[in-house]
Amino acid sequence: MSFLELTGITKRFGATLALDNVNLAVNSGEVHALVGENGSGKSTLMRILAGALRPDEGQLVLNGESYSPTSPLDARKKGVAMIHQELSICGDLSVTENVLLGMEEHKLGVLSRRKAESIARDALAQLGHADLDLDQPAKYYSLATRQLIEIARAIAVGCRVVILDEPTSSLTRADVENLFRVVEKLKASGHAIVYITHFLDEIHRIADRMTVLRDGKFIGERSMDGVTDQVIVSMMVGRDIEEVYVRSKRQTSDVILSCEEVIGNPKPAKVSFDLKKGQVLGIAGLNGSGRTELLRVIFGLDAVKSGKIRVGLFEGYDSPKNRWRQGVGLLSENRKEEGLAINLSIAENIVLSSLRPGLVLPKDATVSAKKWIERLAIKCQGPDQSVRALSGGNQQKVALARMLHHGVDVLLMDEPTRGIDVGSKEQIYRLIDELAIEGKAVLVVSSYLPELLGICDQICVMNRGELSVPLDARTSTQESIMQVAVG
Question: Virtual CA dihedral for 143, 149, 154, 160, nearest 10 degrees?
Fold first, then answer.
């Protein structure tokens, strides 16, 4: 028997069947990947496991005993902790106070500082980080370290099952490797780890087995030995990976965006390239290489020291407002803070950049939104639904819809598929292909090399703020691009 077993789990929300007879079994000392598209039921299943929801049907067994948590706190007391993508860290509290949050040791109402520090130090030591300053407020540490502190909180309370929900979505590559070392320590100490991610390379790198969900149903469980990306994608979306990346035969024409020895502050450093109508040009490179800064400089968000930028017939540096008027749109990598007004509705977000002084009729915004909801297959209740309530993939589609509604000819896309599922990625790839066929020009920044190789015509590589000559995406490999990226 596995250390953790969920059998026949079913959950309904009104008429919606979110989970339909789902199974999951995780062993001690194992990293078990839970895989599926947004809407596949992963979050609902984990909320049941973490005590935030109760199943309508099914059985949960933990360490050979029936397990029925009544709340997340009750789940932690029984040995199950979930580390969410949005961390539950109190920035103004110290490392010790965050590790002990909710389980403070006290005697006669007085907190035992020495005991608290001992527990925190021991938990961090188990993760290989006993050197952290326990008195330092958590807000002064990096995102990766704050994530570590939250994992230490789970260890301190004695949890034997740790759920990691998209733990690397906002981490640098170096921080990802540090996290993997922490996960290996948890595994070696006998913890059962449920690992949720959209990154296929991480599944191969860290997982021993995987369980795949699709449309709320249990599709299958597999050992990772010999499993290919093709197998994983096929189980997730019901079709082969070759169908995910789309690159039709495209006809390019005039240069519509040109940079000539453009220097930013401090990046980019002397960048030159041409982007043609009907072309998809990829920008590869390591984090910090200057890729995002290049897009921000072009769009007018960051200052330019020198060089020339041409957009169609316009030449020079300009404001984002004027870039919109010139037919340039930017899809930010930080969609929640820079790309969307998440408290507004879908319709309001779509028409936001094309508003003009005067009265804007809600009926007109709704009609426009319905068109884009249909074209981009945005899963929602309707144009009036808040963007906050949508999945990451559907939020990204709303951000794309705003650019398309504005009628831009040049699309600057910074990590357009980060944090979204394979199905939504495929839809965005197909949209990019359609836009290129229509004559739009697309500049794509991405950290995922298979994506660039699969959808782009050419790829330039950023290294220390400098941009390489364009490489043919059809003849390039991940290895050849990485060699340029690391200099």
Answer: 80
Paired tokens of 67: 């397990």
Q: What's the pLDDT at 115? A: 82
* Nearest residue to 185 (alpha-carbon basis) of 2, 4, 34, 29: 29
Cis bond upstream, residue 72 (ω within 30): no
Per-residue DSSP letter, 408: -
CB-based burial of residue 182 (10 Å sphere; 0-12 exposed, 13-18 middle, 19+ buried)? buried
DSSP letter (8 states) at residue 469: P
pLDDT of 197-251, one tens digit each? 878 888 999 999 999 998 899 999 999 999 988 888 888 877 665 567 889 999 9
Same domain, 200 and 317: no
**Listing from the earlier edge strand, what are the strands of the sheet with 314-315?**
271-276, 255-264, 304-311, 314-315
Answer left, alpha or beta for residue 80, where phi above 0 means left and psi between -120 and 50 means alpha: beta
Domain presence at residue 246: no
Across 326-429, the runs of DSSP E, i.e. the strands, are 328-331, 410-414
User: Residue 126's CB: how many other CB atoms inside 10 A?
Assistant: 18
CATH number assigned to the domain comprising residue 361: 3.40.50.300
Say yes or no: 197 and 311 in one domain. Answer: no
Pairwise CA distance, residues 159 & 164, whole Å: 13
Q: 466 and 456 in contact (C-beta within 8 Å)?
A: no
pLDDT, residue 358, reads: 46
Total tally of structural domains belonging to the chain: 2
Altogether, the residues listed in the chain come to a count of: 487
Residue 439 amino acid letter: G
Range of the domain at 268: 255-485
**Do 228 and 321 fall within a single domain?**
no
CA distance 154 to 99: 8
How is residue 350 written in tokens?
């779509």
Do the bridges between strand 410-414 and strand 57-62 make them parallel or antiparallel, or are there none, so unpaired? unpaired
Can you tell me whether residue 66 is helix, strand or coil? strand
pTM: 0.64
H or E segment and range at residue 247: none
Q: Can you tell me which residue has the tokens 């008429």?
A: 15
Instruction: Give the integer Cα–Cα distance in Å for 101 and 120.
Output: 10
**Which pair of tokens denotes residue 132?**
């952290």
DSSP 336: I
The label of the residue with tokens 């909180």 reads: 153
Handedness of CA 171, 176, 180, 181 (dihedral sign): negative
pLDDT surpassing 70 at residue 48: yes
